DNA sequence: GATGAATGAGTTTTCATTCAT
DNA sequence: AATGAATGAAAACTCATTCAT
């Protein structure tokens, strides 16, 4: 009996702990999103969550640490959606795969509107650690895009061009869309349509097909 | 004699004042570029310029004020290069005009590498004032691009597409290039070639011409 | 049965309580000895003992209270070894009694190495209470030594000298030895030999016997 | 003219700076002496001196830094009085030289009553830096005393004994006297007489000359 | 005008103690 | 009794801005 009740208690305590930890993360996310990293003070976070000063430090080591954790969370989620383009038989067309990735990245960032703002706008230069993680993430992203483009070339879907330049352009268009989406306080955005628009632009460019001739 | 010498003195004093003011702006630009807005302290600026602490406040009202002035300077210079697309007779082709603008924007930002970093990365969220100026600038830029695209459509150079989306994509590609250029510590970059690459990407997209058929 | 078992339970509970109280005292002693009063945190003590934070406060009122209790314990033990010099018939020679006391004091402090460190180095100035107890203890000690010296003079064993000064010197030599012993991490020290050395120095001084003539 | 007046101004400014620096040191000394290292807060020091919080940090890097400076000052002054025993012809007798050193050490510490308190009681264990300087100082002191004792033995002034033990005993007696002097709030103490008493005790010990035979 | 010493509000972080479970 | 999460007062330190000289 004792054991069971102890287990129950411990379990409940652990859950409560996790719950509060999550509450602090959520509050911090809101505050960071509203005020930016430098404008957000520990005081703002604890006021938002409704906890005492010391309680914050019971769950996180510092302002920087909680920010890093939020950042890591978002980057991890983004990475989950960035899966290499597959050319296996039966796999969807490369372009469709790309469209899927673009759509998921946009969707994730719109859902994490507040943190995305910071990632895109403010995070660079905050901190050596933050910097290096962001750099690494963007490098991965560029690498992924470059590979996809190269694969498209191998399949003769994509024309001859500098894959490096193309990757940068694509990344730029995505970032700009996220920034726009995040700045607009629109709750419901048709992310799918947007992803298709971005992709369409990147695939076909501005010119009329016959304008080049 | 007295009058003349006074005039002379006043003149010289005014010139000296202007000169020093400029020196402080230059020093601040360097420091902001190296350390970012929050990392840059008044101490860093006065050390860089070689003036006393109080002197800084004789020329600028606050840290924020000098930053705003630098920002305004860059935005003004950028605006000078963003001239509406002309369809007057004898004007260069629209595409060439666009290429020119892209080239000048890139060139200006690379030349003002340090401040550009801040505009792209850090300035948003600093301050209501800074924010609104940046928003206004980007809005103008988008507007300019949108108009140019629309003009291209009117001339049947540009295919049917959402000019809003196209403008955002183009802005995104440019920003990404600037960020890349600014991050790389390359002194000499072939901005012209880059502008052409960006333009080429934006004009033609990724796909092979015959891949669509 | 109920009564008996209740008594038994009460008894067992009381014993357990005493046992745990002692465990906390021991853990605190170790921590205080290693880190000093200010460097020792309640967290260190409860980690050392393996109890919860709140449990500590079930047994002791405060950090200061447990420190005071440890201090009192050591002082009481030291006092037990400081018995007045006896001149009763059949009593050992005064010098031998002195030697015994010095030996016991050194031995006790070396055995309580950790607490002794604090008494000698850090305890003064911590707290009015701690201060007054230490002052009282040292005053007693000085008094004891002074009396012993005076007794030695009455018995014509000890030369004419200021007993106050002599007592202070003797106390000083003992404290210095304890400090040295405690600083050296030697586990086994020949306390007896040391006590004899100290005593020899104090009795005979530096000079050659014939150097005075 | 300008140069001269500038020099004058600079000179005056420098003097004022030195003066204020000294005032802070003095205030800190008083506060440290009254409350001990841990009990002394920056707030106490700035209240004592009558300056703003930031001003303190204009002159000293941290609480630890100012304490270290005070400590170094006292140790330096003490070292000035600890000059090796000279056996050159015409030099004063070794014992007289020793007496001089003891007298000067006592005098210096009594004059720097407040800091001496901390050195003797509290300083060990404060900080790695403080610790190592104190250790070094005491090691020097022991070395000096040991050498003096050995020299006395070479000159047949001092009897056969363990110079290490003797040095520790002598150091102990001196420390005890300083502690006593510092604790007593007596303003005027006959340091000379005390130094002679200490020395007499250390030289001749307790026993009557004829008691040993 | 120039100087730089002085200011003090504001920020992060620590840790002994309390209290609901 | 035991637990350990929560508390919040208190402390060190920063830095944009002011002001007497």
Ordered list of secondary-structure elements with their pairings:
Four copies of one chain form a homotetramer.
Chain A: H1 2-39, H2 42-49, H3 53-59, H4 63-81, H5 94-111, H6 113-122, H7 128-154, H8 163-183, H9 191-204
Helix pairs in contact in A: 1-2, 1-6, 4-5, 4-7, 5-6, 5-8, 5-9, 6-8, 7-8
The structure holds a DNA duplex (21 and 21 nucleotides).
Notes on the structure:
- 4 copies of one chain form a homotetramer.
- With 213 residues, chain A is an all-alpha fold.
- Chain A has 2 domains: 1-60, Homeodomain-like (Arc Repressor Mutant, subunit A), CATH 1.10.10.60; 64-205, Tetracycline Repressor, domain 2 (Orthogonal Bundle).
- Helix content of chain A is 76%, strand content 0%.
- Chain A has helices spanning 2-39, 42-49, 53-59, 63-81, 94-111, 113-122, 128-154, 163-183, 191-204.
- The radius of gyration of chain A is 21 Å and the shape is elongated.
- The model of chain A has no long low-confidence stretch (mean pLDDT 83).
- The interface between A and B is large, with 44 and 42 residues.
- Chain D binds a DNA duplex (21 and 21 nucleotides) through residues 9, 12-13, 16-17, 20, 41-43, 51-58, 62-63.
């Amino acid at each position: 009996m004792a054991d069971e009740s102890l287990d129950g208690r411990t379990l409940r305590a652990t859950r409560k702990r996790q719950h509060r930890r999550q509450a602090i993360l959520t509050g911090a996310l809101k505050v960071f999103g509203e005020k930016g990293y430098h404008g957000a003070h520990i005081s703002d976070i604890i006021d938002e969550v409704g906890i005492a000063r010391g309680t914050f430090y019971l769950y996180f080591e510092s302002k920087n640490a909680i920010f890093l954790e939020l950042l890591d969370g978002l980057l991890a989620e983004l990475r989950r959606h960035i899966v290499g383009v597959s050319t296996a038989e039966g796999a969807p067309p490369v372009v469709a795969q790309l469209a899927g990735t673009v759509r998921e990245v946009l969707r994730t960032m719109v859902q994490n509107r507040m943190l995305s703002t910071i990632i895109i706008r403010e995070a660079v230069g905050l901190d050596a650690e933050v910097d290096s993680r962001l750099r690494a993430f963007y490098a991965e992203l560029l690498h992924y895009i470059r590979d996809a483009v190269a694969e498209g070339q191998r399949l003769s879907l994509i024309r001859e061009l500098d894959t490096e330049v193309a990757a940068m352009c694509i990344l730029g268009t995505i970032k700009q869309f996220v920034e726009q989406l995040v700045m607009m306080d629109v709750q419901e955005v048709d992310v799918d349509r947007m992803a298709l628009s971005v992709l369409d632009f990147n695939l076909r460019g501005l010119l009329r097909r016959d304008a080049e001739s």
